[in-house]
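Annotators were shown the component list below and the corresponding predicted structure, then asked to write short factual statements about the assembly.
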Amino acid sequence: GAVVSQHPSRVICKSGTSVKIECRSLDFQATTMFWYRQFPKKSLMLMATSNEGSKATYEQGVEKDKFLINHASLTLSTLTVTSAHPEDSSFYICSARDLRHNEQFFGPGTRLTVL
Amino acid sequence: QKEVEQNSGPLSVPEGAIASLNCTYSDRGSQSFFWYRQYSGKSPELIMSIYSNGDKEDGRFTAQLNKASQYVSLLIRDSQPSDSATYLCAVNPGGSYIPTFGRGTSLIVHP
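Structure shown to annotators:
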């Protein structure tokens, strides 16, 4: 299957700081990437759909000014959690859609802990 | 609202048995169906995709799709303890490339 990388894998930050997470498709071009959040023992929650060269589409209840998404190239999307607070602590996972096979591949995830 | 339903489990099977995981979906126009495996603390990993009615086999895994009955299933033959994980069913509703995920079924394979 296609490979998606995500960086960093784990981050601990102080309340009020901003954190940037990178998602890269390594061996295919991804016009669409997705950002999910998952709390312990809970299901995946789609936060936003990111299309290359255009603004992201956010799911209901997700603050676009808090979770900034940039998809500047066909292989890179970034999620910036601005002014992070302890309640933002979660497992953030990106995925990229491989048009060749109409399949979606997930990155390894980023575990964010806000102190 | 497009829905994908899975029994949360846990489904417990002995090693070597066949594990059967089921998923139903509400949108009759759905065309693409996927099974993912997620180990605790890890991200989901794509196991199978299926688009046509019938069975699709890949190693010990078989996906079964019945569009008339709106269900898709995953069979795992010769289950191993390493298969213990949560299995997520994902469905692309008709006209959309954004999948809807089920809540997942927890599978436990005991020695």
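Statements collected:
1. The interface with chain B takes residues 1, 32, 34, 43-44, 46, 49, 91, 93, 97, 101-109 of chain A (CB under 8 Å).
2. The mean pLDDT of chain A is 94.
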